[in-house]
Amino acid sequence: MMAINQEKEIERYLLSKNLNSELFIEIKDHFIEQISVQQEEKNISFQEAFQQAKLSWNKELNLVKADFLSSRKIARIEKSVIQKRFKTITFSAVAFSLLLALFMYSNSNVFRYSQISLLSIMGVLLGYNLVFGKMRLYNYVRLSFHPLILKNAFVGIILFSVAWFWGNNVTDAASGIMKVFFLYAIAVKIQLLYYNAKKTSVLI
User: Which end of the chain is more exposed for a tag (fewer CB within 10 A), N or C?
Assistant: First the structure.
């Protein structure tokens, strides 16, 4: 049975790795089990077993930049989880915005109704996050500079430049592109707020 002060030492070490609560609990359990097994099988002290556990987890718990557009540092193991989550969010937002774009060309009212609906959903999620203490107002302000939003802006600039260079009607091309990327950005924000409401790490 591990002593309380030893368990606290493991917790302090893992807290220094900026892990989200879910990963923190999971990895803490792995550490406790691994250390206990090492102590029993090799008949070594807690500190020796703890050092061996830290060495075996060194690569996964090494602090790295969460994203090339983010200055925040997180454990490598968490980065891989977050990047997979980002891919899911991006794919969903792209598929959704392109699907709406197809309807927009046949019916000009689709964008207006979609805009109202999406902004309403985002407002409800934002209100839920703020009222129930899932996030603070400054977190929402930072959301505009989220890596996924910034990537969207960069891609939008590139596509706008291409449309301007090749297109005959720049105004129509710019309007169409901006509408699609607006829908994409809102779809991304909605998903980020949803994950945040579930206390799932998405770099907010």
Answer: N
- Considering the entire predicted model, what is its pTM? 0.82
Residues 22/82, Cβ–Cβ less than 8 Å:
no
For residues 88 and 73, the answer to whether their CB atoms sit within 8 Å is no
| Residue whose tokens read 């193991």 | 77
DSSP secondary structure, the chain, as one string: ---HHHHHHHHHHHHTTT--HHHHHHHHHHHHHHHHHHHHHH---HHHHHHHHHHHTHHHH-EEESSTT---EEEHHHHHHHHHHHHHHHHHHHHHHHHHHHHHHH-THHHHHHHHHHHHHHHHHHHHHHHTTSS-HHHHHHHTT-HHHHHHHHHHHHHHHHHHHH-S-HHHHHHHHHHHHHHHHHHHHHHHHHHHHTT--S--
